From TrEMBL:
Active-site positions on this chain: E362
Region (Disordered): 23-94
Comp. bias regions, Basic and acidic residues: 29-39
Family annotation (PROSITE patterns): PEPTIDASE_M14
Peptidase M14 domain boundaries: 97-398
Keywords, comma-separated and alphabetical: Carboxypeptidase, Hydrolase, Metalloprotease, Protease, Signal, Zinc
Highest taxon above the source species: Bacteria
Signal peptide: 1-29
Descriptive protein name: M14 family zinc carboxypeptidase
Organism: Streptomyces mirabilis
GO molecular function: carboxypeptidase activity
Low complexity composition-biased segments: 45-56
Record keyword Iron-sulfur present: no
Required cofactor(s): Zn(2+)
């Protein structure tokens, strides 16, 4: 159990005061752990439109670098006239007295005309098609000066030891500071605080502002989630919580923020959220992310948090007068429950790109959800105005910190990259290594054992080659350096073929490479509760073979750096073609063929045969999805009859947003359903299979809807996931099994044993769970497709037994995780979780094809 933190009174430098950079005194108090925002495990069914998924899957990434093709030899300001958006009186911001999305472009046009400090770029588009605005505020720069800034930025990352000695970096490099606003769409006020601050910075003449802008670049993502801002929803148009999407980056809004991190390299950042009263300001409780340089991060993040605390408390709001409690800093004031362990949150992801002070700031007064619907407009606007003030105070204090500590902030960012590039050891936090931060204890010490490198082998199964190419491209998109062997080699006693990929962890962003590729850690014994997911591993869950290398001379391996993975797609020149269904790309290619009316047959091993007459279409799909159409070997099932003909499958889906998105990524024709949709009357004649995991309750159906559903299920098929899918199976009387629910807070990467049948043939031997389920008391005709590995199957994550000793990982060990019968498949794992475990997707795709 974490010991209480001592109270520390912030001492604020009088030098931080000024017309913009106010930092009044403050005090703090111990208080109970904050209320969690909750997980994104919805109780309803996803209803996102298909065009939002298409936008997310096809939206390009905008190059925001100063030397990029999008902005060759341009200085600052970079002004442009933004076309207006149609006025939308239904924008949820209006009720709160805040800026509706359609008013942002005109406002930015005005701000650009105030002087020569404000620039606007379009950093991309949301899943709903709305523009994402990146505003830069800085003193004017010539094209040459901008290129000099880019040269120094690249030197800091790519040659940190040289950057540490470069007098130009010390004298003239501008500190990059990033404000990310409104990533949760119904947490609005950061956007308005940012617009107010930009307006003040655009024309202020005081000495502190002039000094700040001469030595800083300030970047504002004005609204990171315009879809949610307009609709008053936490999620974007695809139903995704964007503050859970980093590392995976399935959504265009997350990819835009990723590109800002790569191209602008912020050293300091805030992510503006709501609502926790009093205002919550990171750093966090344990466990702390083990892959970044936490000593440097804690040093700066805690110091900046004290300044923000002073500024926010100094506004004068009180519980009695305004209903506003004093600021809380979880690291100091809480024991556990608000951790920074997973890399899925914006500030934690930014740390891997060199941010040495990065914060979630939760402003105080709730105006969303039930409050939005029930409170009087006047009260909502009073609260929103206070929230804007609080967000603005946090921003101004951060600018003061960045201005005063510019030299040490950049030195610490350089040190982050130096440690990575040289393979230097991490520095465990302690009172000696992070002076000035009170209460550091052994519960705060998290470091990792970095391997020397990872190898992603060439050759082997086609699944591995296709998955490897996807993984390599994803690493590169995250600015991880990857090389490829130009000849066969041996390393640490193992032989590898020419063409294998090598990820040398002596690189500036080693933490990011390791957090993606490592197995992770079982932290079940470290804390009793986690804020969100606790285990992840692209190496284990994407279907690629990833080998950690602990020793050996990499200098003896002949490699070249790559900018993209080598293409693996091809089409055999003669005869019928065989397409394996081991990756989501292969499922997508199959569904495209079926949509085009190509006659496809499925074999007993789960692969499909495509007629040679469709070779031209196969060639186009091989290019689109980078998949291989091999020459056929066996074209008959083991019984000797022709393979089973397949047809285009239409899926009725009562599922989570991540599952709906994954189904569309695999090109399934999906119609969202729910209890309400079925009760309103639903035509089952145009549907082939039902997939259920959320938002469909058999007992909640009216008599007609229940009868129609039961009739469909006894002539078609069901794929169920989790407790909701298992409950529908039981109500319909399909598979004779008893579902057992594990600890509902449990999640992570688990070892599994696959049966080798058509559903799980060639599937990875690891899966992902969230609120795991397993199946016992299997009746006649029930087949175990996948089981949890015997013993404790958890590899990384957090999975404890319940208070009565049940529901733990040992109870699941050896039990059935995926079961099937003639017309149903049930999953106790999470094979489509948040569009994340790519290697698990084909299990669902094969299940839908099998039972349809």
């Amino acid at each position: 159990m974490r010991l209480p933190r001592p109270v520390l009174i912030a001492t604020v430098l009088t030098a931080a005061t000024g017309s913009l950079l106010l930092a009044p005194p403050s005090a703090t108090a111990d208080r109970e752990p904050p209320v969690r925002e909750g997980t994104d495990q919805p109780t309803g069914a996803a209803e996102a439109p298909a065009n939002a998924a298409r936008n997310a899957l096809t939206s390009p990434v905008t190059d925001l670098s100063d030397s990029g093709l999008a902005a060759p030899r341009r200085g600052y300001p970079r002004e442009q006239v933004l076309s207006p958006d149609p006025e939308n009186p239904a924008d949820k911001s209006i009720k709160l007295g805040l800026t509706p999305y359609h008013a942002i472009a005109p406002k930015l046009n005005v701000l650009q005309r105030l002087g020569d400090r404000v620039s606007v770029e379009v950093a991309g588009r949301s899943a709903g098609g709305h523009r994402l605005y990146l505003v830069t505020v800085t003193a004017p720069e010539s094209a040459r000066e901008s290129l000099d800034q880019e040269r120094m930025r690249e030197l800091i990352e790519n040659a940190p030891q040289a950057a540490a000695k470069d007098p130009a970096v010390k004298a003239s490099y501008k500190t990059p500071v990033f404000f990310d606003n409104n990533i949760h769409g119904n947490e609005w006020e950061g956007t308005d605080a940012a617009l107010q601050l930009i307006e003040r910075l655009a024309s202020a003449k005081d000495a502190q502002t002039t000094d700040l802008l001469a030595h800083s670049r300030l970047y504002f993502n004005v609204t990171a989630n315009p879809d949610g801002r307009i609709a008053g929803t936490r999620a974007n148009a695809n139903g995704f919580d964007l503050n859970r999407d980093f590392i995976t980056a399935s959504q265009p809004e997350a990819r835009a923020i990723r590109q800002i991190a790569i191209d602008k390299q912020p050293a300091v950042m805030l992510d503006l959220h709501g609502y926790v009263n009093g205002t919550l300001i990171e750093p966090t409780t344990p466990p702390h992310g083990e892959n970044y340089e936490y000593d440097l991060f804690l040093k700066n993040t805690y110091a900046n948090a004290l300044g923000m605390e002073a500024a926010v408390n100094g506004l004068g709001h009180t519980p009695a007068k305004d209903g506003v409690e004093p600021v809380q800093i979880p690291f100091r004031d809480q024991r556990e429950g608000w951790d920074d362990w997973p890399p899925i949150f914006t500030p934690q992801y930014q740390a891997f790109h060199g941010a040495v002070a990065a914060h979630t700031v939760e402003i105080p007064l709730a105006v969303n959800n039930s409050e939005y619907d029930t409170l009087p407009v006047a009260e909502l606007r009073r609260r929103s105005a206070i929230n804007v003030d609080v967000a603005g105070a946090a921003m101004r204090a951060t600018l003061a910190y960045a201005r005063i500590h510019r030299a040490s902030i950049i030195a610490d960012q350089i040190e982050v990259f130096r440690r990575g590039a040289t393979g230097a050891a991490q520095v465990p936090v302690s009172a000696e290594t992070v002076p000035g931060v009170p209460g550091i204890g052994p519960e705060d010490v998290y470091t990792t054992d970095f391997p020397r490198a990872y190898v992603i082998p060439a050759g082997g199964a086609q699944r591995s080659a296709t998955a490897a190419a996807r993984l390599v491209d994803h690493l590169l998109a995250n600015d991880v350096r990857v090389t490829r062997a130009t000849r066969d080699f041996r390393l640490a006693g193992r032989s590898y073929a020419k063409g294998s990929y090598v990820v040398d962890l002596h690189q500036p962003k080693r933490g990011l490479a390791n957090v993606m590729l490592a197995d992770g850690r079982d932290i079940s014994d470290k804390v009793s509760v986690m804020y969100d997911i606790s285990g992840w591993s692209l190496g284990r869950l994407w279907g690629a073979t990833v080998v950690p290398v602990r020793s050996g001379e990499l200098s003896a391996v002949a490699t070249r750096r790559v900018e993209a993975a080598a293409r693996v797609g091809y089409v055999a020149p003669l005869g019928d073609l065989r397409l394996r269904l081991d990756t989501p790309q292969e499922i997508a290619a199959l569904n495209s063929l079926l949509e085009q009316g190509v006659s496809v047959r499925r074999l007993a091993d789960g692969s499909v045969v495509v007629p040679g007459s469709a070779r031209a279409r196969a060639a186009a799909l091989a290019r689109t999805y980078d998949v291989a159409f091999d020459a056929t070997g066996q074209t008959r099932t083991t019984e000797g009859s022709p393979g089973t003909p397949l047809h285009r499958v239409r899926v009725a889906a009562a599922v989570t947003p991540g599952e709906l998105f994954a189904l569309r990524e695999m090109n399934f024709d999906v119609v969202p359903v729910s209890t309400a949709v079925l009760n309103a009357g639903f035509d089952w004649s145009a549907v082939d299979v039902l997939f259920v995991s959320s938002g469909l309750d058999h007992a909640g159906l009216n008599e007609g809807a229940r009868a129609a559903l039961d009739a469909f299920l006894h002539t078609h098929g069901l794929v169920g996931r989790g407790a909701v899918g298992a409950a529908l199976n039981s109500a319909a009387g399909l598979l004779a099994v008893r579902p057992v629910e594990g600890n509902g807070d449990a999640n992570g990467v688990v070892r599994v044993v696959n049966s080798g049948g058509p559903l799980t043939a060639n599937a990875p031997d690891h899966g992902f769970v969230y609120a795991p389920v397993w199946f016992t008391d299997l009746g006649p005709g029930v087949r175990v497709e996948q089981a949890y590995a015997p013993g404790d199957p958890l590899v990384s994550g957090h999975w404890r037994p319940l208070a009565d000793g049940t529901g733990g990982p040992e109870a699941a060990g050896g039990q059935a995780a995926v079961v099937s019968g003639p017309h149903a498949v049930l999953f106790g794992t999470e094979p489509l979780f948040r569009d994340h475990p790519k290697g698990e997707f084909p299990q669902v795709g094969r299940a839908l094809l099998t039972v349809s």
